[in-house]
């Protein structure tokens, strides 16, 4: 494998790892109420616009955020843990 393709593969692995960590962080902060469900949804929408694969990975987090909104009585701006 050439040095360029190895570097590209490494960059891809790192970007996927970073995206996964950001998704976990957003889920955790929203679940704890540190950020609002609306804020989490905004961040997830930005992530999901980067590619179709990112959109697929962000879809489960978006479902969690929508469930949090329902649990909080539809109030997406609530931050009960802040």
Describe the structure.
The structure is a single chain. This protein has 82 residues and is mainly alpha-helical. The protein has one domain. 76% of the residues lie in helices and 0% in strands. It contains 3 helices and no strands. The chain has helices at residues 3-32, 37-48, 52-71. The longest helix is centred in the N-terminal third of the chain and has 30 residues, at 3-32. The model has no long low-confidence stretch (mean pLDDT 91).
Key phrases:
82 residues, mainly alpha, elongated, ANTAR domain-containing protein
Number of domains: 1
Low-pLDDT residue spans: none
Query: Mind describing the biggest β-sheet?
Result: none
The 3D shape can be described as elongated
Distance between the termini: 49 Å
H and E order: HHH
Q: Number of helical segments?
A: 3
SS strand fraction: under 5%
- Count of extended strands: 0
Helical proportion, percent range: over 70%
**Rg computed from alpha carbons, rounded to a whole number of angstroms:** 15 Å
Class from helix and strand fractions: mainly alpha
Question: Mean pLDDT, nearest integer?
Answer: 91
């Amino acid at each position: 494998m050439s040095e360029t393709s190895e570097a590209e593969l490494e960059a891809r692995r790192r970007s996927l790892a970073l995206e996964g960590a950001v998704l976990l962080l957003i889920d955790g902060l929203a679940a704890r109420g540190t950020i609002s469900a609306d804020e989490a949804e905004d961040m997830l929408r930005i992530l999901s616009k980067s590619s179709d694969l990112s959109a697929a990975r962000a879809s489960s987090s978006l479902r969690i955020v929508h469930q949090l909104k329902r649990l909080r009585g539809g109030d997406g701006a609530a931050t009960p843990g802040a």
